[in-house]
C-alpha cells in the first residue's frame, strides 16, 4: 500500500506507515529526503549485523584454529564423569556464560591432568563460545606453534612461519594446548615466556592445558611462566581414567553458517521496497 502524498503548493511529503515519520521536502531541509530516515537507519543496522556475523563465522572457520573434531564442542559436551571432570564442566560453562567479564578481567584457566580427561574439549568449547560473540579468539597446540617457528628458520629471512608465536600475542582470547612437553629447549622456554609474559602484562586472558600435575608443572614450563599463568586464572586439577570414547561429540557445528544474503525493507518515494544485501565473498 502506498502512503498518501501530502502536498502544499510545491511541497511534497510522505508518511512512513511503519514508523509514522514524515519525510520528503520538509521546511528548512537543504535537500529532498526520498526515504524514511528511520527505515534507512534500521537497514544499515541489519547490514552491519549481517556482515559482522559473517566475519565472526569466517574467523571461526578459517582462523580460530579449532580442529575439525571439536567444531561442535560446547560446554555441555564436558561430561561430569568424575569429580575432577565435574569441576571442569562447571568451569567451562561458567567461563563461557560470563565471557565479557572474564575477558575484561584478563582471567584465564590452567587445566592440569593426564591425557583423555577433557582438557582439549573444554578449551575448544570456550573458544567456540567466544567466536559466537566476537572475532579473534584462537586455539593453538603449542608444540605445533614451535615446530612452525623452527621450520621458518630454514626458509628465507621473511618466512612468515617465523612469526607463528608472535601472531598469537594480541588474540583477545588464547587457548594454548599441550603445554609442558618434556625435553623443551631453552629456545622453547624463551618463546613461551615471551608470549605468556606479554599477555600477562597486557591482561589478555590465556587458557592453557598440560599433561602435568601441580608438582611438576613449573618444572615443565618454567617457574616464571607457571607463576604468571597461575596468577591469571584458577587452577583445575584432573585425575582418573581417560574419557576417550565415552563422550560423543555429536550435534551441529557450534556456529551454523550464516545466510549468504539478507533482504531489508524500506519506505521511500511513498512506497515500500526491498533491497538485497549480499555477502562480500559471495559464499554461503
Automatic annotation (TrEMBL):
Region (Disordered): 250-284
Superkingdom field: Bacteria
Protein name: DNA replication protein DnaC
Listed GO MF terms: ATP binding
Domain AAA+ ATPase: 105-235
Record-linked SUPFAM superfamilies: P-loop containing nucleoside triphosphate hydrolases
Family matches, as InterPro entries: AAA+_ATPase, IstB_ATP-bd, P-loop_NTPase
Biased composition (Basic and acidic residues): 271-284
Any GO BP annotation: DNA replication
Organism the protein comes from: Pseudoxanthomonas wuyuanensis
Amino acid at each position: 500500500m502506498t502512503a498518501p502524498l501530502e502536498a502544499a503548493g510545491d511541497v511534497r511529503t510522505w508518511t512512513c506507515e511503519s514508523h509514522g515519520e514524515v519525510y520528503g521536502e520538509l521546511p528548512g531541509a537543504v535537500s529532498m529526503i526520498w526515504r524514511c530516515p528511520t527505515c534507512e537507519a534500521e537497514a544499515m543496522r541489519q547490514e552491519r549485523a549481517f556482515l559482522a556475523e559473517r566475519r565472526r563465522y569466517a574467523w571461526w572457520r578459517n582462523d580460530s584454529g579449532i580442529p575439525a573434531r571439536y567444531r561442535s564442542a560446547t560446554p555441555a559436551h564436558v561430561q561430569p564423569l568424575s569429580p575432577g571432570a565435574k569441576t571442569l564442566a562447571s568451569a567451562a560453562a561458567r567461563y563461557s556464560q560470563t565471557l565479557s567479564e572474564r575477558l575484561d578481567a584478563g582471567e584465564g584457566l590452567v587445566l592440569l591432568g593426564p591425557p583423555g580427561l577433557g582438557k582439549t574439549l573444554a578449551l575448544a568449547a570456550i573458544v567456540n563460545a567466544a567466536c559466537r560473540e566476537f572475532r579473534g579468539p584462537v586455539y593453538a597446540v603449542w608444540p605445533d606453534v614451535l615446530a612452525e617457528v623452527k621450520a621458518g628458520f630454514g626458509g628465507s629471512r621473511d618466512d612468515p612461519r617465523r612469526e607463528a608465536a608472535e601472531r598469537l600475542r594480541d588474540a583477545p582470547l588464547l587457548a594454548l594446548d599441550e603445554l609442558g612437553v618434556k625435553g623443551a629447549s631453552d629456545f622453547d622456554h624463551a618463546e613461551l615466556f615471551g608470549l605468556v609474559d606479554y599477555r600477562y602484562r597486557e591482561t589478555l586472558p590465556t587458557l592453557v592445558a598440560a599433561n602435568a600435575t601441580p608438582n611438576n608443572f613449573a618444572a615443565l614450563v618454567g617457574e616464571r611462566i607457571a607463576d604468571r599463568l597461575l596468577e591469571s586464572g584458577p587452577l583445575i586439577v584432573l585425575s582418573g581414567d581417560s574419557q576417550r570414547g565415552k563422550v560423543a561429540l555429536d550435534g551441529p557445528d557450534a556456529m551454523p553458517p550464516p545466510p549468504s544474503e539478507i533482504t531489508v525493507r524500506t519506505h521511500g518515494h511513498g512506497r515500500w521496497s526491498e533491497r538485497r544485501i549480499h555477502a562480500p565473498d559471495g559464499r554461503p
